[in-house]
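Hi Y.,

Following your request, here is the sequence exactly as I used it, all 274 residues.
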Amino acid sequence: MVKPLSFKGDKKPKKRKHAKLEDNDADLDAADSKAVQTIESTEDDSWVSADAPSDLTGPTIFVLPTSPPTALSCDVNGAVFAIPIENMVEGEPSSAEPHDVRQVWIATKITGADTVTFKGHHGRYLGCDRFGILSAKREAVGMEETFKLLPVPDTLGFFALQTLAVDGEDRFIAVNEDDSKKGKAGQAVRGDATEFSFNTGIRVRMQARFKPRLKANKETKAREKISRQELEAAVGRRLEEDEVRRLKKARREGNYHEEILDVRVKGKHDKFAS
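Below is the corresponding structure, written out as tokens. Let me know if you'd prefer a different format.
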């Protein structure tokens, strides 16, 4: 389930802890719980760069190749334009984060295809017609509302956003800056570029918790957490404090099943191993 977006400066709601831990294992379980909560909190609030097209899902911003950096945005009427990005570390586009909900698009992969859709903050989809005009006015997805994310050759971290092909010719989203309005949202964003160029190179930033690799790490951390009661149920008897520590360490290091067997043998509760 997609969680509400959060921005820097927002107050975080306080969470109540209901878990009751046994006295002998309170410190260990509390430390594990705190570590998992810290990972979740960090991922929920942070933004990272997409490394591959397969990463793209969930809240996303497109950092356009302008000076200063801008993000592809839309308003409630469906007009698409560029908004200067305010949240960056030392002006570095690779650290960009949204400060305005209009800059955020929800990326969704289309099942059975290599295309993706982008829904704006107002619940309508980004689209590009055959003339290269971008808009976000439709509530349903058609051919004009589907895109492909292609890595830019020999340029790590940059992608080209391919739009609907016209007469068999591939088209890409590109930005053309008006020198007289540079830095003042005077960029014209269109979807009719016919080849890769500097103006088609887009950085893609996404929420970290949706990135497959980071999400997998989070799930691994969750699996590593195990309570004293679960350990005792697996062994079949009450455990000593040193045995609990030993099994939790084995859980983290990957030799959990071997250690369980050894502990069972020690307690003479596994008739097949005794």
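The chain has five helices and 15 strands.

Thanks again,
Q.
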